[in-house]
Automatic annotation (TrEMBL):
Originating organism: Granulicella aggregans
Protein name: Peptidase M1 membrane alanine aminopeptidase domain-containing protein
Essential cofactor(s): Zn(2+)
Molecular function terms, GO-annotated: metallopeptidase activity; zinc ion binding
Origin superkingdom: Bacteria
InterPro entries in the record: M1_LTA4H, Peptidase_M1_dom, Peptidase_M4/M1_CTD_sf
Active-site residue list: 571 (proton acceptor), 662 (proton donor)
Residues annotated for Zn(2+) binding in this entry: 570, 574, 593
Renumbered residue ranges of the record's region Disordered: 24-56
Every Peptidase M1 membrane alanine aminopeptidase domain range: 565-732
Pfam families: Peptidase_M1
Signal sequence segment: 1-24
SUPFAM superfamilies per record: Metalloproteases ('zincins'), catalytic domain (SSF55486)
């Protein structure tokens, strides 16, 4: 028998997250961090006073030659040729190689016809599992009869050296090359030639091409899909910034079978930055007409992070057509932008290479429809949330200062990221100027004829809610449908939005620390099915602004009624997760979405008189993870959260990503919260750890390993079950793994004098021998209270049999229970 006081993990009694905590007086909000001189906004960028006549798009002669290249180079036979590109080994057993004609003296592609094979061993167990999910094998051995290669590395020379004799040209080889061109331009919408151009020597230069780009597109008689293997030092398709990808493509769609860092990156303790440049500042002048047409000029400051950069690939919405790009002195620059329905990626070509650390200013003029939609009655919908201006590709890891000027019809108000500097009417237009006071991960805006409501509780950080005064035309049919929906006005719910947003910020500030912003705008958007959060700017679905009677009438409560209770809380949480703290790649996005869902749970706990909605919320997340989808997969089983979007494919289903990342990410943080919890200090250790995380990665992207390191800095003694001050046991199981344990517990009680003696058996099953967990134990009492006892460590599939002196209790014990607060994700 173990006495309560001598139990290693300090079993003791404490009330668990009682509803009375919600009645306590809320503390004052902590003040936001002061602006440092380093982070104060710089002066707005200015376009050159005089601009040379603009160049036409796609006019660069080397780029044109790459677009027109054909399979008309040398042709020769090869036999038993093997070459390795990262984790893949290609073997050309017997056949003919047909080279593309050189561009600027450089060969950038080849076609192989014959018998060949691909042998690919994924570099770790997680990737082997992913390959099995997509292609039903952990090691890929694939026979092919044709392959089209594109490259800027030494592949051409390797092929030439392996020649066993010359061969005649082939119309079939040219046809294979044309098929591959169509695949990339029309289906994948990827400008392969622009990528090849990045590694070509500048025009007029005598230096050789330099680059490590390699691409193979393969077909075979047994292929149901095409195979695409890519190694790109700048980031491969679908998995950037990681450099290696394996894709399968068929009928206009593709699955990402694999994505992982290159061999050189895998050898590093932390992957090096492979993004060749970053955007540091943008000044944008945008005119939005009543029909939604956007005409804008963006002045962009760019700093190189690598030397030798001559091509700057940027993201711009395909229907926004560029009319000209200029350098810092007004000199016209070449640029790339193909047809809006094909590989329309925007890129700027510099006149001379940039050195690492060197900066340049670009001015881009562009215009087009469809990026902003006129929804009628002064309602507008910004489609191009991240790409209405020339932006970094994969923008949410790049923090920059933004200055924006908007010209709109005078009845239309703009609400944007950052702070409103001024607003005035000029003739028939409204002029609105905005400036970010801190670097932002992305810039955006909403616009409409708004009515507003402003919070009064805290002047240091205000919540301002905006709803349209008129209804968008696409919803007018509801008013004539015969349903009892009234006028469908959205302005009546403004106070609710403000109240929920204000409460969420109050709660999250206590948990995670203050924001750097002095306001957050909650704006109504015309879309009903989702919300989104940009820095200082939240887009809330229009259906949120209708009461439950209307929501019931139009059917939005049929699927997930809890969504409408937390959508504001979830999106406000993204002001911390995704904006203040960014995520480094798709592998880290689970923190943004999962932490926002976790934040919504504490919002429910702190704003309700009982914990019912809080517990119902966790029950729903648990159900989503363990319930099979239409494809027969439980989200919890398809892969770890660090696989990100890769878990969704044609076999597992498109929606499995959302069903995994959001709830499991929330559970991971909640489980850590409950591991940090102690009767003596309550939530304080967890809150300190989370505030350290926010302060350590404020206005910069964080990786999963960054988060783990911060948690380890603050971990309690009871969490150090391996006695190495590491949380490998937790992260390997729940973050990098897919194990879901099953627990059972039986208990009985005896009296020894005034003390209560508890005897229990705790069983952990369905886990590997290495799986370890300090399991939280609770005691249910006869007076309907449930109290936290402590953590019981258990490893592997095993049973712990213990007798514990609980001391003198104030009410008779009923039973020992597990997962009272959904402390563990388990069966």
């Amino acid at each position: 028998m173990i006495n309560l006081r001598s139990w290693e993990l300090s079993l003791c009694l404490a009330l668990v997250l009682s509803a009375s905590s919600t009645q306590a007086q809320q503390p004052e909000l902590a003040r936001r961090p002061e602006q440092t001189a380093k982070n104060r906004p710089p002066a707005p960028l200015k376009a050159p006073d005089k601009l040379d006549p603009a160049h036409a798009p796609n006019a660069n002669s080397v780029y044109q030659a790459l677009r027109l290249r054909t399979v008309n180079g040398e042709a020769f036979t090869v036999s038993h040729l093997s070459f390795q590109r990262d984790a893949a080994v290609f073997t050309l057993e017997n056949g003919t190689v047909y080279l593309y004609g050189p561009v600027s003296g450089i060969t950038t592609g080849a076609v192989f016809l014959g018998e060949g094979s691909l042998h690919l061993v994924p570099p770790n167990a997680i990737e082997r599992r992913q390959l099995k999910n997509v292609m039903k094998t952990e090691v890929l051995d694939q026979h092919f009869t044709s392959a089209v290669f594109a490259f800027t590395d030494a592949t051409a020379e390797e092929l030439r050296k392996a020649s066993t004799g010359t061969a005649a040209g082939s119309g079939n080889a040219a046809g294979q090359g044309e098929e591959m061109r169509t695949l990339f331009r029309h289906d994948l919408k990827y400008d392969l030639e622009a990528r090849l151009l990045e590694d070509m020597p500048p025009q007029g230069s005598t230096q050789p091409a330099g680059g490590g780009f390699f691409l193979a597109e393969m077909k075979g008689p047994l292929f149901s899909k095409r195979l695409i293997y890519m190694v790109d030092p700048h980031g491969a398709i679908g998995v950037a910034p990681e450099e290696v990808a394996l894709l399968t493509s068929s009928e206009g769609t593709y699955d990402i079978a694999l994505g992982f860092p290159s061999e050189s990156q895998r050898k590093l303790p932390r992957p090096a930055n492979n993004i060749p440049f970053r955007v540091t500042q943008q000044t944008i002048d945008a005119n939005i007409e009543r029909n939604g047409k956007l005409t804008a000029t963006a002045v962009t400051a760019i700093t190189a992070t690598q030397s030798g950069i001559t091509v700057l690939p940027l993201e711009l919405f395909p229907t926004l057509r560029v009319s000209g790009v200029w350098g810092p002195s007004g000199e016209a620059l070449d640029f790339i932008q193909e047809d809006k329905l094909r590989d329309a990626g925007f890129a700027v070509l510099l006149q001379k290479p940039l050195k690492s650390g060197e900066s340049i200013q670009l001015t881009t003029a562009y215009a087009g429809k469809d990026a902003v939609l006129d929804m009628g009655n002064d309602n507008y919908y910004l489609v191009a949330r991240e790409s209405w201006y020339p932006n970094m590709r994969g923008a949410l890891g790049n923090y920059a200062f933004y200055g924006m000027t908007f010209h709109t019809p005078k009845t239309v108000e703009v609400v944007a990221t950052g702070n409103r500097v001024s607003e005035k009417i000029e003739g028939k237009q409204q002029l609105s100027v905005w400036q970010s006071n801190t670097p932002l991960a992305v810039a955006g805006f909403n616009l409409g004829a708004f009515q507003t409501n402003t919070s009064e509780r805290n002047k240091d950080l205000q919540v301002i809610s905006y709803a349209n005064t008129s209804l968008a035309e696409n919803y007018e049919g509801l008013r004539n449908s015969g349903m009892a929906v009234g006028t469908l006005s959205t302005t009546g719910m403004l106070k609710r939005a403000t109240s929920e947003g204000d409460a969420a910020i109050q709660i999250y500030t206590e948990f995670f620390g203050p924001l750097q912003y002095d306001h957050v705008s909650l704006t109504q958007q015309t879309a009903c099915n989702y919300g989104q959060s940009w820095p200082t700017l939240v887009y809330l679905p229009i259906c949120y602004f209708w009461d439950s009677t209307i929501q019931h009438q139009i059917g939005v409560l049929d699927g997930d009624p809890s969504y409408w209770k937390v959508v504001t809380a979830h999106e406000v949480a993204h002001q911390w997760w995704g904006q203040t703290v960014g995520f480094a790649s798709y592998r880290d996005q689970w923190m943004s979405e999962g932490f926002a869902d976790f934040s919504a749970s504490i919002f429910l706990l702190e704003t309700n008189k009982t914990d019912k909605e809080y517990r119902d919320f966790w029950a729903l997340l648990h159900k989503r993870l363990l319930e099979k989808n239409a494809m027969g997969y439980r989200p919890v089983d398809v892969g770890p959260v660090t696989m990100g979007t890769l878990v969704s494919n044609t076999r597992t289903g498109d929606s499995v990503y959302t069903s995994l990342i959001y709830p499991k990410g929330a559970f991971i943080l909640h489980m850590l919260e409950m591991q940090f919890y102690t009767p003596q200090y309550g939530e304080k250790p967890f809150q300190s750890a989370m505030q350290d995380f926010v302060n350590s990665y404020r206005n910069q992207p964080a990786t999963t390993e960054d988060f783990k390191a911060v948690m380890e800095r603050h971990m309690t003694a009871s969490m150090d079950i391996d006695h190495n001050h590491k949380l490998d046991w937790f992260f390997n199981a729940y973050v990098y793994g897919t194990e879901t344990p099953k627990y059972t517990i039986t208990s009985d009680f005896d009296k020894k004098g005034d003390d209560t003696i508890a005897h229990f058996k705790l069983t952990q099953s369905k886990v590997s021998p290495e799986f370890a967990m300090p399991v939280p134990l609770y005691l249910e009492l006869g007076d309907k209270r449930t109290i936290f006892l402590g953590h019981m460590p258990i490893k592997g599939s095993s049973t712990v049999d213990q007798t514990v002196n609980l001391g003198k209790l104030t009410a008779p014990p009923v039973r020992l229970v597990l997962n009272y607060n959904y402390d563990l994700l388990s069966e």
